[in-house]
Amino acid sequence: MTDAAYLLVHEDREYLLEPGEEFGTDLGVIEVPEDVSAGDEVETHLGTVFEVRALRGPDLFNHLDRTGAPMMPRDVGLVMGHTGASGGDRVLDAGTGTGILAAYLGRVGADVTSYEVDDEFADVARENMVTAGVADRVDVRTGDLTESLDSLADEGPFDILTLDTGDAPAVVERADDLLASGGHLAVYSPFVEGTREAALAAREAGLSEIETLETIQREMDFSDRGSRPSTAGVGHTGYLLFARAP
C-alpha cells in the first residue's frame, strides 16, 4: 500500500499534500518533492521545517474530503474489533459516504465492495481511496445495494457485511445469502428505531450472536481540584448492531 499523499507537520500545523504539490502558508510556500517519503523534512521558502509523515487512520478522519458526517473513529474501532476484519477478507459495505470505514478496512488488507447512492459522494469517496492508498482494494460503486442483492449473492460469499444506511433492515434480511458461514454483520444507525428494526431482521434471518451497543465516549478533565468526566456533552454518536451468520 502506497499513500498518494503525506501529512506535513510543523508544531500544531498539519497539511495533507501530494508529491509534487506546492502549497502556500503564512509560514512560507511548501514545495513537496516528487520523491518525498515518510521521515523526510521539507523546508518552506521562509525556512520553516515540516516533518513528512505517513498517513494513519486518524489522519484520514481529520483530513479526507467530507461529504457529510463520517463514521467516528470510536465507531470504526468497534466495527474493526467486533468483526475481526483482516487481510484477505471480502467485505460488502453500503453507505460509503466519505469512505472512512472503507479506507480503514482497505488499509488492513481487506477487499471492499462499497455502495453509495449519491453520485457526487461516490466520486469524492473514490478520490479519498486514492489518497488513502487503497484504490486497488476498495471498489466504490454508485447505486442502491438493495437493488443488487441477487447479483451480489452470486458474487459472494462475503466475510463481513457493514451497513450505514436507512434501509439496512432490508439488507439484513438477506444477510444469510450474502455472508460466508461464520461471517460478521455490523450495522450503524444514528437512531435507536433503525437499530431495533435491524435487530429484528437479524433474528428473523437466523443470525446468531446478535448484540446492540450504544457508543458513548467521554473525555476526562484533570485539574488541581480533582478529576472528573468532561461536562462538554455526553459523547453519544450512535448505535451499532453486530451479528454473525450461522
From TrEMBL:
GO BP annotations listed: methylation; tRNA processing
Family matches, as InterPro entries: SAM-dependent_MTases_sf, TRM61_C, tRNA_MeTrfase_Gcd14
tRNA (adenine(58)-N(1))-methyltransferase catalytic subunit TRM61 C-terminal domain boundaries: 74-221
Keywords, alphabetical: Methyltransferase, S-adenosyl-L-methionine, Transferase, tRNA processing
GO MF annotation, one: methyltransferase activity
Coiled-coil residue spans: none
Designated name of the protein: Methyltransferase domain-containing protein
Organism this protein belongs to: Halorubrum miltondacostae
